[in-house]
Write a structure and sequence with these properties.
- The complex is a heterodimer.
- Chain A is α/β, with parallel strands linked by helices.
- Chain A has 4 helices and 5 strands, in the order βαβαββαβα.
- In chain A, α1 links the parallel β1 and β2.
- In chain A, α1 packs across α4.
- Chain B has 14 helices and 13 strands.
- In chain B, about 45% of the residues lie in helices and about 15% in strands.
- By secondary structure, chain B is α+β, with helices and mostly antiparallel strands.
- Chain B has a single domain, classed as Cytochrome-c3 Hydrogenase, chain B (Orthogonal Bundle).
- Chain B is globular.
- The chains are: A alpha/beta, B alpha+beta.
- The interface between A and B is medium-sized, with 17 and 24 residues.
Amino acid sequence: MIRIIGIGSPFGDDAAGLEAARQLAADPPPDTDVLVADRPGAGLIDLFDGAEGVILIDAARSGAPPGTIHDLDLHTLPSHPLGLISSHDLGVAEAVRLAATLGQLPRRGRVLAIEIAAGGSEARVDVCAGVRVGVTEAVSRTRWWCAVYRETLRLATE
Amino acid sequence: MPSNKAKTKTIHVGLLTRVEGEGALHLTVDGGKLVDLRFDIFEPPRFFEALLRGRHASEAADITARICGICPVAYQMSALHALEALFRVEIDPAVRALRRLYYCGEWIESHALHIHMLAAPDFLGCESIVSLAEKDRPAVERGLRIKKAGNNIIKLLGGRSVHPVGVCIGGFTRAPRAAELATLRDELARIRADALACVRWVAGFDLPDRHLDMEFVSLRHPDEYPMNEGRVASSRGLDCAPAEFDDCFEEHQVPHSNALHAKVKGRGPYFLGPLARVNLNFDRLGPDIASVVREIGVSFPNSNPYTSIVARALEILYAIDEALRIINAYKPPGAPAAPFTARAGIGRAITEAPRGMLYQAYETDDRGIIRSARIVPPTSQNQAQMEADLRELAPAILSRSQAEATHLCETAIRNYDPCISCATHFLKLDIVHR
């Protein structure tokens, strides 16, 4: 089972990961389940349970143009990559590191971080046009990674 | 920069780690004497009190739940109790019990988060929960199990564990069936052993033996350990109703913080939170907890802020027992929420957030439209006490390296489990041109 987890908060550009997950949930790739997680903190570790592969989609701010996709390996995630946004609790990077230390990280995984605009956009309900381009790209890359993981898992079981 | 390098030491912790929200500490010691200390809260103001103005009272619980991702239940409960006091709503005893269960869930998850992820690394020489997990994996796994059990209570009663939405004036939007509550029972019964192990674990830490002259303040209830109800009590004899908050306490702005400072009128700073609650309500914890306290050899009341972590662990144990008691006695209410009729006036309430007393007051018109709202979070009230604590600590850190001094100051601040993002208020700034 490959699990896709969209992470974010409901308003503005920080909802980019949630929006990508919603689009994927409407037409999910084969053998996947799709979850949305509103700032899960350490609870992210529980969401890995039972998954052979995982794809996290989250918002990030690194100074790159809004909509840029950072496609990162879950297992080599630096401690504070690209300013993945989290207000409280553990951030995504810390939760992933903790899961790895506790032996609870799926064997395969990607983090697709969608660059959002600096300065915040909390006043808006939905994501801005530039970030929407990134959401579309993240959806497309997620489908591609799901296909790669499916094939890897198929070969591993043969 | 220090004016005299031999005598002056300036410690500036630019960004406090492992606290909720964004704050910094600036402390200058000159010739052994503290000349400047500022616990800066620069988390931006969040305008919740203004956001509530013009909204209907029935929206207050959903709006205030957004103040904090760790303690949303506290914000909902204080808001609802204030509005229910104003609208004179009679609460069904079964609903009252469910709300207490809901609060147990929050204490369990918030305290487990603080103990394992934020505070324990301080006392075990670890940089973070990740390095703690490398050193003591079972302890971290245990902490995550406890936290998850608390979150599951909130999820069942509030619809989701982060920013829950299931409560309303008069009760809940939906009352759980007894069978649903029973699903929590097994998990809670299982993690009771974890919680007991957690108490023993933190009591075994090498906690500094440092006692402060402090006034402890918490709610006190005639029959039970305080969560949603009670009068305000203190270790120096304070006794008032929640509605008399402004008669007993005063808030004031300081230029270096976006959170208001508070003090007991005519006295000074005060200490809120688990240590204050245990100190003032030890007799309400019951014989089982008293027996555990005897075993671990930490006595209450005590004035050592570092024992806050022990008080927090005891409250997890208490909250698990209390949650099990409520679940076992549960009979669904006749209706999930009592009806209410809005009226004009002011309602006030205090409940015990994980970090201490949370006061809210609402003024509404006769249609229930909120005309003004006031929210006084525990971290805001604790801030002056945190500074007093650090002022007392300052001479002892003079001979330490920058890294050691920073660690000591951070550890002292974390005793209060500050939730800085909850505590920010808009800072009114007057600029005088001459």
